[in-house]
Amino acid sequence: MAAPTTSPTPAAPSTGPLAGSPASIALVREVAEDPAAPRLVAVTGPAGAGKSTLLRELVRVWTEAGAEQDVTVVDDAHELGDDALADLRGYAGRLDARLVVAFRPWPRSRALARLGATLAAAAPPLVLGSLAAAGIAARAARVAGVRISDEAVRVVAERTAGAPMLVDRLLAHGRVGGPVPPQLAEQIGYAVDAEDPRVVELVTALALGAPVDGEVLVPLLGISDAAGIGVGAEIAELDELSGRAVAAGLCTPDGRVVPLVAESIRARVAPARRAELRRHLAEIELDRGGSVLAVARTLRGSGASGERAAAVFRAAAAEAARAESPDAVRFYAEAVAAGTPPLTVAAHRAQAHLVAGDLDGALGHADSVLSATDAVEATDAVRAGSVAAAVLARRGLLARSAELYRWTAAVSGERPPAAAVPVLIGTGALEEARAVVGGDGGGSGFVAGRAPTLVDGADDLTARGMLDSVEGSPTAALSGLARAAGLLEAAHGAALLPDTPAALAALVAVHTGEFDVAASVLDRALRTGLGGAPARARHRLLLGWIALLRGATGPASERLAAVDEGDDPLEPRDEFLAAALQVAIARRQSDLGALMRSWTRARQAIVRHPVDLYVLQPLGELVTAASRLREESWVAPHLAEADALLDRLGRPALWAAPLHWARLQAAVLTDDVEAARARSDELQRAACGSRFAHAMATAAPHWVGVLEDRVDAAEVEAAARGLHAVGLSFDGGRLAGQAALRTGDRRAVSALLACARALQAAGTDLRQGTVQTPAEEPRPVAEEPTVAAPAPVEAAPEPAASGLLSERELEVAELVVQGRTQREIGEALFISAKTVEHHVARMRQRLGVGSRSELLDELRRILGDRG
Q1: C-alpha span between 424 and 731 (Å, rounded)
Q2: Residue, of 835 and 362, whose pLDDT is higher
């Protein structure tokens, strides 16, 4: 039988060398080795996969071998009629036939399928597809003549889906990233427009954001059962169009448009058509109750208006709000711009702003609802009231927040929500909190007629935990709050709370001395994003506070600096904690200049933030600093409020003890024995609150003894180590050091100084990331006096490398240059102020200076040279 006269369909000009698939290369080599051998080959793959390139290479090999006679090579066989395909099938039956037929996988007529089966019986079909990373890199070397990076290979693969023709064309333009070059967009546009118009419509819809979903695409494309075939005809037609799009190389096998093709289509579609198609798509999603979020994003800023557009934006906003996405804020704004009455969505907008961390926006929209309660639904009024209550609590206005929670309860006809309990307890409304938590005993977080959610469970645990912190077991309180934080890690809704259970758990843990537990809860909250962006600064500041209490002023300073460097100003509640943290760091470092500078910030924070239960410990630090600076008048009103608050709560030991301890430290700084004795008595009454309170209560009488020059060295050392055991290394070291300076027993001085150094060393090691046990021996230090105050001048060791000052004198010099007083230097180095005075006098003598300014100049020079 003679070879058929069928001519191959003219192929597009070559776009590059052989695709490089192993099977293609193997076929070309086989033909080159034995060009006269009979051969039947079916080559299939989408457009641009390299079929035509392979056929041209085979023709070249046969021609060069002089064996082109009786060889039939057919490209684009899917476009041939049934008769031509039947002729090819007949020719394939010859024993000496050499026939290579290339075709797309779709459309596939019965005649083409029969031909393919005949060819496949002789040899497996050669299926061409996408290039792997190695193939893309190899083509870059051939097409562009350069070796591209792995990142560039990844970009090319992602944008082209590995289609060889698209890979070549993208590489040929020299830039694999950025917008599609106009020339390339036009090239791809020709390939798209060459397809069936219905295929073009499908690909355009997908490129503009339509999902690969028959329920959406059938109405979007206007597909109907015009022939009356019956159920499934529309889907069958859609499958036909999808198959053609894949075969044309415009879509990937999973039905998604190749990214580079989609970019080119979007660049060519007219704006009016783009807007209309997206609007139609959004309405289809809205009608079927599907997700409108993706398509609504494409409509944003398009100016779409009218009830249908507004409904789309409202649905998108609600969908984003359920996921706590900040997009909800923008969608509500678009809904209003499209024609939605502002008041109808104001409550939801307030909640979206709160979730996004915009407290001003949240409060503004909530207030618009609260100002027009007669014109809104009761549910919207309650929602707005709850948002406003949460915002005011985050700003430290707990009393006003409590009033709003009471109001929402009156509007809803129910008890205040469980979320109100931390606010009620924080303002001293203990009976109301009991009523919310106690009630019917069935769990205050749950609402009748609604399934109990994770947020409801967390609210209930938080409420009970906070009540336990005041009148129950500290352990039970901490356990409940930690479990509440764990529940919210897997749920949305924490952003609407007045405070996160993680922050409350950390506060309870800190007040009981469980610093590891507090840090663990906060670290986990930061990792999981508990409470959203608004809670991040609070969690970080509380971690800084924990580091401070443990004596790690370095990490505490780093935490504070990270928060202060943020773009947004701190809310009053967080600013109060930040100011107290800054003051406390300066006081622990005995840096009077820094303390005075930080006190300016603290005064502003004090004015803006009223007293509540959750700031008593920071308030205590400010009380101590105020005594040091003789600024007691700034904190006196707050102390009075704190006393009244604790009285209303029955003076709970867990919350009261740290404030009593801080006031004791203030009395020590002013040598006020009577005040110190009164605080010691209060600590004794609070000793049962926790082991933290017990350690402070044990140490308190010894501070009174220090002020009265009564020191029992063994008992003081035990009390100091007890403070260290609950994390208060700084306080323990200070107690031991001050006691050493007030006793006349040489051995007691030596023992207490050794204890003070050991605890100071523990704090230093903690700052460096290690911890010493209180039983550890002190590390070697320079010689210290071992006699009672007033201490004699200590024997000077050999001069240091500078040849001018001893090591101890250099330590004193560093603190003198910092501007510290003799008393502060003595406290820092655990020596008496008199000894410091002798050191300074000796330095003046050695350096030959008279005035203080000359001394400071010389010391700065020496320390600078030493550094």
Answers
A1: 33
A2: 362
Per the CB < 8 A criterion, the answer to whether 427 and 612 are in contact is yes
762-770 long-range contacts (CB < 8 A, ≥24 apart) are: 762/551, 762/724, 762/729, 763/550, 763/551, 763/552, 763/729, 763/730, 763/733, 766/550, 766/551, 766/552, 766/729, 767/551, 767/552, 767/553, 767/554, 767/555, 768/554
Residues 104, 108: Cα–Cα separation, whole Å: 8
Q: Which of 567, 512, 520 is nearest to 542 (CA)?
A: 520
Residue 689 has which token pair?
């609150």
Greater confidence, 846 or 242? Answer: 242
| Cα 573 to Cα 159: distance, rounded to the nearest angstrom | 49
Please report the sign of the dihedral spanned by the C-alpha atoms of residue 563, residue 568, residue 569, residue 570: negative
CA distances from 555 to 157, 544, 546, 766 (A): 45, 7, 10, 9
State the distance between the two ends of the chain, measured CA to CA, in whole angstroms: 99
In whole angstroms, give the CA distance from residue 43 to residue 202.
Answer: 27
How many alpha carbons lie under 13 Å from residue 119 in its C-beta half-sphere? 27
Q: What is the 3-state secondary structure (H, E, C) of 462-501?
A: HHHHHHHHHHCCHHHHHHHHHHHHHHHHCCCCHHHCCCCH
Containing 443, the helix (H) or strand (E) segment is: none
Q: What pLDDT is stored for residue 439 in this prediction?
A: 56
**Residues contacting residue 13 through CB under 8 Å, at least 6 positions apart:** none
- For residues 146 and 117, the answer to whether their CB atoms sit within 8 Å is no
**Residues 365, 368, 370, 376, CA torsion sign:** negative
Most confident of 8-17, 245-254, 583-592, 780-789: 245-254
- The two beta strands, 98-103 and 39-44, are parallel
Contact, 34 vs 8, CB < 8 A?
A: no
Q: How far is CA 829 from CA 164, 191, 508, 571, 807, in A?
A: 75, 82, 34, 38, 12
The Cα 635–Cα 642 span in angstroms is: 10
For residue 224, the 8-state DSSP code is: -
pLDDT over 50 (residue 759): yes
* Locus of tokens 């019986």: 121
Q: 761 to each of 508, 724, 725, 771, 829, how far by Cα in Å?
A: 28, 11, 14, 9, 12
pLDDT digits (tens, 9 = 90+) for 474-509: 899 999 999 999 888 877 667 778 999 999 999 999
**DSSP letter, residue 610:** -
| Residue 418 · residue 436 · CB < 8 Å | yes
Q: Give tens-digit pLDDT for 307-319.
A: 888 888 999 999 8
According to DSSP, the β-strands at 39-44 and 126-127 are parallel
Written as six digits, the tokens of 485 are 């934080």
Q: Each residue of 154-199: pLDDT tens digit? A: 999 999 999 999 998 898 887 788 888 889 999 999 999 999 999 9
Q: Between the CA of residue 521 and those of 165, 173, 482, what are the distances in Å?
A: 54, 53, 7
- The alpha carbon of residue 595 and the mean position of all alpha carbons in its chain are separated, in whole angstroms, by 33
CB 357, CB 532: distance < 8 Å = yes
Q: Is 71 helix (H, G, I), strand (E, B) or coil?
A: strand
Rounded CA gap, 51 and 18, in Å?
9
pLDDT score of 781: 30
699 exposed, middle or buried (CB, 10 Å; 0-12, 13-18, 19+)? buried
How do residues 91-131 score in pLDDT, each as one tens digit? 999 988 999 999 999 888 999 999 999 999 999 999 998 88
Query: Residue 16 — left, alpha, or beta (φ > 0 → left; ψ -120 to 50 → alpha)?
Result: left
* Closest-CA residue to 545 (of 587, 492, 506): 506
Taking the C-alpha atoms of residue 172 and residue 154, their distance in angstroms, rounded to an integer, is 17
Residue with the bigger pLDDT between 526 and 826: it is 526
